[in-house]
Every structure is written in structure tokens, then in C-alpha cells.
Amino acid sequence: xxxxxxxxxxxxxxxxxxxxxxxxxxxxxxxxxxxxxxxxxxxxxxxxxxxxxxxxxxxxxxxxxxxxxxxxxxxxxxxxxxxxxxxxxxxxxxxxxxxxxxxxxxxxxxxxxxxxxxxxxxxxxxxxxxxxx
Length: 133
Hints:
Elements: E1 2-5, H1 9-18, E2 37-42, E3 45-50, E4 61-69, E5 72-80, H2 83-106, H3 115-120
Antiparallel strand pairs: 1-5, 2-3, 3-4, 4-5
């Protein structure tokens, strides 16, 4: 998303900063009610999200950047999840895929089971695959 304005870069940053709560974290109780926009600025880069009193790790953040152009300013950015949440999701999905692949291999065709599986899962009469050799 790219927005162009005729305001100067300093005035645009000041207006954006005055419309956001720069004091607290997303889950702090010291600010105004839910729906308040919370911001964090680092030079020309910034991050915005709404204050909420519940935990929703998948709520989007707006990551943006202010640049100066043609006597005005350009605000460009987009909505994304928190990078920590994205990394955690990647880890969780890869773990689930690995566990399901291991489970499919373990529970697959009995002819391809390792020796310990035939000993461990021996039938009740004691005539399992290990005793047939």
C-alpha cells in the first residue's frame, strides 16, 4: 500500500505520532480502551496495531515507512503478522509434517516394520513374526 501526501515528512510523522499511543505495549492496561492505536517508531520506520485486552497472536500489525518525495511525503507499508509468530508457525507446521511422516512410516505396511516392532507387538498367542524365523 502506498499513500502520497502534500504534508512535509516532519509534519506527517508528528500527526501520525499524535494519533497513536506511544507509551504502552499492546497488552498494557495503562492506556485508553480497546481499539486505541498503539505505535512504535524507529527513525522513518514504524509499526502500528490496536490495543486489545485479550491474546490474539495472529492479529495483523501495520509495518510502514515514511519517505520524502516531491515536496511531500510517501507512506508505504502493509499488514503482516508479528515475525515471531510467523517463525513459530513455520516451526509448528514443519514439526507436524515431520511427525505425520514418521507416523505414516511407522503405521504403514507391516512387512516393512523393523525387527523390534514385530517383537514388541507380538500377538497374544506368542507366535509373532520373531518366532516364525
